[in-house]
Design goal:
Hyphally-regulated cell wall protein N-terminal domain-containing protein, secreted, mainly beta, 1 helix, 13-stranded mixed beta sheet, binds 2-acetamido-2-deoxy-beta-D-glucopyranose, nine-stranded mixed beta sheet, about 350 residues, signal
Length: about 350
Amino acid sequence: MQFGSILTVLTSALVALPATMASRIAQNTYSNINADYCYDDVVIEHGVFWCCFDTVLRFGGAFINHGSFYLFHDRRTGTLLNLGVVGCDYIENYGLMYFNSIHVGIQIDLMTSHVKNSGDFFFMGEDAYNSKIKMPGTWEITKTGSFNMYFDSRPQRGAVLGTVGTVFTNDGQICLRNAYIDSLVVKGKGCINIGEDSVFRYQSSTDIFPASQTIFLSSKTSMLFVGADRQYYAYTIAGWGNGNYIVHSYPIINYSYDTDVGVLTVDASQYNIKYRMKYNIGLGYDPELFELASMVPLGSDLGFYSKTNAGITYLGDVPASSTSSSGCKPCKDAPMFPPEPIE
Ligand SMILES: *[C@@H]1O[C@H](CO)[C@@H](O)[C@H](O)[C@H]1NC(C)=O
């Protein structure tokens, strides 16, 4: 991997960010010390990057990024176990926010009350087993915003979006590769692209998942996991087919597919609790190719989710007249790291 050599070159140029500069990053800056900006707002100016290696940053005020912010940790050279931005009041991102851990799981607490993202967020990590991402605040991903989680292999513990009382609004793009997201309240008109070996789990007993949000099962190994009751309204599902799964926390008792409107209705039940889920999968599915599964593969080395008939899959190709994913933009590739120093 080329990170090693580039990092060596940069090490001599690493500078601690002077306290007086803390509030405004106006030129490309490399930092490698833990830092507290408890009383400051931090602004990264347009066209400028701030690249932090092996650091824990604490903020007290707002964090406003018009440029690029990189937080990077390499277990081979660094000492930290966690990588984190802790305690900002709020984040506004118009540029790039990039978090990456090499040879260690990514552990991030984004303990902000509010995040507004009109740019791109990337969360990446190598040691999936130890990855843990918490983002308890209220999030707003605008139409131009993207939120990307790309891992080398699937984390056992997922990223947790939101907490009781917060709302995750996605009007842009969420993209997952080898990622697992657990979510509570979701709003918005965006797209959730569940890529290879990825799971999007939605569980809320108080909220209805919006039909305006497209869930795109974009690979053979994508999985939507729905565990909530009160979901009598149809989820909008694109890309169901080629053996990917919609999984429930209760066993499926029976299901039916309305070939005229393209809605799959599933009745699930356990301990006398019954619930019905609806999925707007679109037209053209052949009910002969529907199959229930009791052992659903969880992706990369994680084994199976086993529960009698909890999963439903479609053995055929995704039909041409199935729900369109045209509202989903292609997922962005991760940017190069580290950024080149500008002389
Ligand atoms: C499941 O079977 C019951 C009893 O026959 C029926 O009332 C219900 O509509 C069926 N559910 C689905 C999703 O077809």
